[in-house]
Each structure stands twice: as structure tokens, then as C-alpha cells.
């Protein structure tokens, strides 16, 4: 039987050279980045692209963190350079570990996004590589590796100060010779500011968060940890999870830097399964040409359980937030949009960095209040959508377009129609929005529903402009689609 992933001449040819592995990894992540078209976390836009857009083009929204000076500009400057170019032009890993890195669903879903956590993860892995290389070298080579590792660690901490959690562990182990106990320090987040955005129980990372990120790799990672007996490296994972568990506000992306390490242990477990008796070095290369059936089945299981998840989360789930901004950007370019109001939880969509037109826009503010128990605009809107919108429209002029989730549409439909809004008109396919057709694999992008609405001057709501968003709810009511309403006279043009 031919072994599809380790047949003679294929795996040995590709993975015998570090340069080939590097080129293949680069090509894979490039393709990965093109396939990620969904919305994961507001920070991938609001704390990177939006800031960079403001630096280069002079307009863009800065959230409260930037106004209080608690964010580093190093990460947005990476994208500012790309924006500047756009404005100017106008326009080393064994097979098993490599396999685990590219197949894991969360790495595929998150690592290529513009989150500072993604850059932190890359810098952490590179820094750990040079730090550990120093212990295996001597003389000038060891010193140079250590200096480079320290520079990368400093850069990672400058981008995300919480990266110090990782490097504190590494530094303390090096200082005390791996024998003394470790002490927890009072770290960033003790002020409880992050708790404003929600809290989880202390064990969340262990029982849900990190376990979900590993998914079916979890038992392989655990087996690899115990089989390898690399307790200091596995201890780093436990340290990071433990420290972050002390903080009330928890997110998947916070522990992304240790995910590649856990996947390395999963790769090690596959290597052990392929050759459990560890034959002498002269025979060890033969496993590239022959792999036991149990490893083939394990690899097939990991592919089947991770690839569909990676594609669904990257191409389908929560893509409405991205698609609606592509649509509004095109409409704005055609002169059909004058101003936009987002009646949805704060930071639910990208902003100027995607629209790329300097026109009035308004979203619901969720800046943490210095006085506790006072709900922000986003919370007040969710408690009473129609009442909040009535107060807002009473004190300000009407925008030309309103964007909202379908979950609030029922509460706001009559209000919007009474203010001369109708649901945006004709259907537009992805290619007309400037979005390549291949990005719509497995996707129902638009649902066109002709509706006649009675009352309120018998206004007619045209075909609903709906952008599919999600099949299931995440942390609120099901936000199945994103809907765009526009003033009736604009909808008719």
C-alpha cells in the first residue's frame, strides 16, 4: 500500500532541507492568510489596522487604550509601513512537528491575523529557539544566540507587555539553575480593567480555552509531554496558563504563544508512535519511507477533525462583519453613502481601515467608565434597542446608512421605517464587491427576501441587504446576519 504522506522520495525530498521546509511553511501561511476572511476579535482591526490607517492617512478611530497611552505603537507601525507603500504607489522542524503546526485548526484560524498576539507568538517561538540554542553552543556562538534571544524577547514585550510572563519563566529558570521554586508576581491586569469586557472561571484555560485550541491534538500533546520528559518546556505552558488563569478576563488569543509549543509535543508523540523502540541512528532515517499504520490513522484522524474546522471558522463563521464593510466601501466609492451609524455592540466591524473613505461614522462606545455599575452605550442599546435609538436620533441628525445585526432587527424595524429608512436594495454578488469568487467557497453570502411593510406612511422596504454572519451564537443572541438600512431616497438611487 502506498503511503500518501510519507512515500519514498516525497517526504525525504521536501523535509531533508531546512530551506525547503521554510519555503513550504511560508507558502502555506501565505495561502492561509488569503483564506482567512472572517471576523474573530475586534483587536485585529481596532488595535492594529485602524491605528496604522490613522498614522498614514490622517483619519481613523483611536480607542480609549491609545488615548490613555497604554498601547505600544510598534505593532501598528508594521502595517503603517504597508499603508505608506500603498499610498505612495497609489494603488528548522521535523516532519511530525511541521504537520501538527499546519493542521491544527486554531493556528490556521488565528496565526495569520493582524492581532498583536500573532506577532507575539512568532517572536516568542523565534526567541525561545535562540535562547535554547545558546545552551547547546559554546563561546561566541552561545553569547550571540543569547543576545539575539534577549533582543527578540524585549521586542515581544514592547509589543505586548504580557509577553513578560513567558520570559520571566525562562529567565528565572536560567538564573536559579532549574532548582528553586518560582514565585508569581503581581502582573498587568491586576487593576481589573480587563474584567470590564467579561470574566471566566479560574480553570477556563485548562478545561475549555486551551483545550479547544488544541482540540484533537490534546491527547497527543499530553502523551508527548510525558514521553519526552522535557519538564522545563512543558512547565512553560503550565506557567503561562496558570498566570493568565489568575486574571478575570480571559481570551483564546492570550495564550496563543504557547500553542506552537504544545503542538511540538504532539508532533513528538507521533514520532514516538512511528518508531517507539528508537532504533540506532543508522536506521532512524528509514521511518521517512515507511510509517506504521497507527501513525497513518492518527494523522488522518487529526486532518479530518481539524481541517474542516479550520476552513469553516476561517471562511464562513462571522464573516458578515467583513463583508458589510467591503460593500459599504464600494457604495461609498460610488457616492451612495454619506454617513454610517453602527447600531450593534461596539467594535463589531472593521472601521476606516477597511472603508478607506473619510466620512462621518458613529459606533456605540464601550470605553470603561471610572464609575462602576454605569452601563456604556453598547450595554444600554442591548437592553432597549428602540429606546436607545430614539434618544440618539433625537439629539443628532440621521445618518444615510444604519448597520445592525439581525438579532436586533425586529426591535428596530418600525423605528427605522418611521425615520424614512428602508432596507438597502438590489442584490450584489461577491465579485461585484471586489471580493474574489474563490473566497465564497461553501458560503451563502446574501439572502434576498422581498418584504412589504405596512404602516408608517406605507413605506416599502426593498429587498433585504443581508450579509450572512453566523450559524450559531458565540457570547450573545444569535447574530445570523448583518443588515444594512439606508434612507429611502438613497435606496431609490
From TrEMBL:
Top enzyme category: transferase
One Pfam family named in its UniProt record: Glyco_transf_22
Transmembrane domains' residue ranges: 73-89, 121-141, 148-170, 205-226, 231-248, 254-274, 295-316, 441-464
N-terminal signal peptide: 1-23
Enzyme Commission number: 2.4.1.-
Top-level taxon of the source organism: Eukaryota
Localization annotation: Endoplasmic reticulum membrane
Molecular-function GO term, any one: alpha-1,2-mannosyltransferase activity
Topological relation to the membrane, as annotated: Multi-pass membrane protein
Keywords annotated in UniProt: Endoplasmic reticulum, Glycosyltransferase, Membrane, Signal, Transferase, Transmembrane, Transmembrane helix
Annotated GO CC locations: endoplasmic reticulum membrane
InterPro entries to which the protein is assigned, alphabetical: GPI_mannosylTrfase (IPR005599)
BP term (GO), one: GPI anchor biosynthetic process
Protein family: Belongs to the glycosyltransferase 22 family.
Protein name: Mannosyltransferase
Organism: Cocos nucifera
